[in-house]
Amino acid sequence: MSIKLTTQAYCKMLLHAAKYPHCAVNGLLVAEKQKEKKKDSHSTPILCVDCIPLFHGTLALAPMLEVALTLIDTWCKENKYVIAGYYQANERTKDFRPNQFAEKVGARIAENFSEAAMIMVDSTRFTMGCYEPILTIYDHHENKWKCRDCNADCFEDWCEAQKITSALLEGRSYESLIDFDNHLDDLRNDWTNPEINKSVLHLC
Amino acid sequence: MASVSEMYDVTWEEMRDKLRKWREDNHRNSEQIVDVGEELINEHASKLGDDIWIIYEQVMIAALDCSRDDLAWTCLQELKRQFPGSQRVKRLAGMRLEALEKYEDANKQYDSILQDDPTNTAARKRKISILKAQGKSAEAIRELNEYLEQFVGDQEAWHELSELYINEHDYGKAAFCLEELMMTNPHNHLYCEQYAEVKYTQGGLENLELSRKYFAQALKLNNRNMRALFGLYMSASHIAASPKVNATVKKANVKYATWATNQINRAYQLAGRGTKENKCSVKAVEEMLESITMS
């Protein structure tokens, strides 16, 4: 029932928040599509392998979000992924609780993927060193979002995630991160961020 | 660490001009401004002439964004020395207090400016920003409304108010703010497009039709606005799919949506030379086209 994050997913989430420290940011998390539902599949954690940064600034408008979900859905199908989660970092540092909008989007994702998670980024603990995970993970239970503590267990490899995220932050890789907003400004901007993916792989 | 001029092979004049461009475009790329500005101030201050004062101001604000209180303090001292008793510098001192989260002291600073000059818009807007920073959205909205009753032409304020309303999901009032902006800036495609987005989010057939019209208007003003193009597609196809519309309206909207899809397709072809991600986007767009023609 629980989700886990790969280094690449965690990295890009934090880079997105770092690129726009004065804005709210949000995005999606994708996981590999499971072949078939095993009997006790709730014991296998879902691994979120990648993150697609969506918007920065004013988040609560519908049309571009719908466009993004449609395009990303197609991309997921091509790559045998499924949209498994939603993350958001609020504009105000001290504000790390999910708002109505986050819950709405989370619920929409949960319609297509029952184990969907909603992740809020806690900017008050955001440091260059990344010494602790700064996420709060919410699982969808009976139409309510239940908070779960995020520790090293929520990562495929926390040590690696910590090291690489910190390195990329120091190197200001966030300057070249592309979110969906950047893509809409110029279609040549690639929201899959192949260059950053390469950097992550390179450092592994 | 290499200097900016070494890394990018630029002259101090180019750095100064870049800072001016960022100032004019109101870019919030604070890290870059600090990098370029700090070097300019430290190495080339004597060559900058009177430009240096506005650069001090620009760099100070950027430094606050980057938690560089040392740099902000230096800039502030230079400005205080050159312009003693200036309201503009007082406001900068207030911003520094805000950055340090000393909101009470910042408010005192702004109140003292307003005592001397009750029409000082900058100080009033900073006070509203403090409310926003403290999460007091309702109060910020109230104060901003009061401010706009007096300063009805302040576009930045109208835009800020529309954003505050959007964050509170009060789309009707957000639309009103954007209507004010469209009235005074009829050629601004961004306001048209944002208005259309708000109307779309409000929902309902009437709002969808309005949103489609304003997406179309935004496109007329700037045919490369991708958000407007996508918005036109989304609103037209939703209208066409609605059970409440008659056959004529449905047919017309299918036509608009189809046109939009073809334009989107063309835009993607122009942009990507068959990169993997673009192929997916093109495919998604083709699926969109199929879905409307089928309904």
Automatic annotation (TrEMBL), chain A:
Domain MPN intervals: 3-144
Q: Which GO terms describe its cellular component?
A: EMC complex
> CDD domains of this UniProt entry?
MPN_UPF0172
Note the InterPro entries from the entry: EMC8/9 (IPR005366), MPN (IPR037518)
Its subunit composition reads: Component of the ER membrane protein complex (EMC). EMC8 and EMC9 are mutually exclusive subunits of the EMC complex.
The UniProt entry's sequence similarity note says: Belongs to the EMC8/EMC9 family.
Give the protein's recorded name.
ER membrane protein complex subunit 8
Automatic annotation (TrEMBL), chain B:
Under the cellular component aspect of Gene Ontology, which terms does the record hold?
A: EMC complex
Look up the coiled coil feature and give its residue ranges. Answer: none
Task: Give compartment(s).
Answer: Endoplasmic reticulum membrane
Annotated Pfam families = TPR_EMC2
Under InterPro entries, the record lists:
EMC2-like, TPR-like_helical_dom_sf, TPR_EMC2, TPR_rpt
- Assigned keywords, A-Z: Endoplasmic reticulum, Membrane, Repeat, TPR repeat
Asked if NAD is a keyword of the record, the answer is no
Q: How does it sit in the membrane?
A: Peripheral membrane protein
**Chief place of localization:** endoplasmic reticulum
Superkingdom as given in the UniProt entry: Eukaryota
* Ranges where the EMC2 TPR-like domain occurs: 90-199
The ranges of the TPR repeats are 155-188
Family recorded in the similarity comment: Belongs to the EMC2 family.
Q: What does this protein do?
A: Part of the endoplasmic reticulum membrane protein complex (EMC) that enables the energy-independent insertion into endoplasmic reticulum membranes of newly synthesized membrane proteins.
Subunit: Component of the ER membrane protein complex (EMC).
Protein name, UniProt field: ER membrane protein complex subunit 2
